Amino acid sequence: MSKISIHVFIDRQNKNTNIELYKNSTVADLLKKLDINPVTVIVSRNNELILEEEKLGNNDGIKILSVISGG
Amino acid sequence: MKMNCCSEKPVIGLPSGEKLCKSHFTDYFENKVFKTIRQFDLIGREENLGVALSGGKDSLTVLHILNHLSKQNPKIRINAIAIDEGIAGYRDKTLAKAIDFCTKNNIELHIFSYKEEFGLPLDEMLKILDVKPCTICGIFRRYLLNKKSRELKLTKLATGHNLDDECQSIIMNQLKNNIEASARLGPKVGIIQNDKFVQRIKPLYLCMEKEVTAYAFINGLLDDFTECPNVVHSFRAQVRDILNDMEQKFPGTKYSTVNSFLQILPLLKQKFKGGMIKVCLKCNEASANDVCNACVYLERLKKSIVKVE
């Protein structure tokens, strides 16, 4: 199966990374691959929130924002 | 069955399975906050309200919503209070956000610091005392918030505590066999009228942290992630992680925990009402004991400084 590349920013780690996923992968697949509990984050694409079942496309820019309070 | 609210693109899923678009989620969230205010009688018709403002998403969300409420009800006045604990690289960033928000929204902001009030910033205190950072920080912050709220003649102080915070506190108190502390939880703290104590209210009491973050994101209240450098030491962080794992496996766990707690809270308040609020013999402030915890730690600080000198 062909793969797609996703550009990911994880705010809690202040980290930018590229992740390869299978075509038709979802936000939930991305979080699973990164070992992030979906309860602890919201996810945005093009400054819009997206759901866990949202399908990702090649070269999507995704932000994973922590919901956990900083202090 | 999972259902979308309308034909617009959904942005968040609720534990019930319902999926809401941006507009319906904003209505849902604000209605939940207003319902909480009504259900627990958090705000009266005439108030001089304070909002404890850290500059983080929770307190900014409370201030944002109560500020709108104030504009609709001129008899409800809003002030913000921020505490500068003196945590380098953390509080300075969140305070900048707090100042910016209050300036743009024309809200009066009062800032008090540990350095001015107690003589040292938290970072320096932690070099002297061998204590858990969150314990001493929490004691001094609550002390100052109450004292300054009273001096500012605030009728109530709203905090940004959300459902996750309350759920964590309930479980922490269970695990530490500290049920008396749970009697001081709930959406409205300090029910007994006492001129030394300003009632604290939690308008986000029934809002999950994820919902608060989504609301803050949609309304431009979410800033770059900043984490207190001391948080990794806390027992709370470990309980938080366990609860988030449970919530993922069993959606609704946090609601169930808080809702079941609300059923026994009146019994806890009844059982522990005798020992709830005294007056500290040293500083004359509200206290659970003869001498308040702030005075106990200030005395320990003084003794430690003398030893070093």
Explain what you see.
The complex is a heterodimer of chains A (71) and B (309). In chain A, strands 2-1-5-3-4 form a five-stranded mixed β-sheet, with helices on one face. Chain A is 10% helix and 42% strand. Chain A has 71 residues and is mainly beta. The model of chain A has no long low-confidence stretch (mean pLDDT 93). Chain A has a single domain, classed as Beta-grasp domain (Ubiquitin-like (UB roll)), CATH 3.10.20.30. In chain B, 50% of the residues lie in helices and 13% in strands. In chain B, helix 1 crosses helix 9. Chain B is an alpha/beta fold. The chains are: A mainly beta (71), B alpha/beta (309).
Topology, please?
The complex is a heterodimer of chains A (71) and B (309).
Chain A: E1 3-10, E2 15-22, H1 27-33, E3 41-45, E4 48-50, E5 61-66
Parallel strand pairs in A: 1-5
Antiparallel strand pairs in A: 1-2, 3-4, 3-5
Chain B: E1 10-13, E2 19-21, H1 22-39, E3 47-52, H2 57-72, E4 76-84, H3 91-104, E5 108-113, H4 114-118, H5 122-128, H6 133-151, E6 156-158, H7 163-175, H8 179-182, E7 188-189, E8 199-201, H9 209-218, H10 235-249, H11 253-271, E9 278-279, E10 286-287, H12 293-308
Highlighted features:
heterodimer; A: 71 residues; mainly beta; Ubiquitin-like (UB roll); 5 strands; B: 309 residues; alpha/beta; Rossmann fold; 13% strand; globular
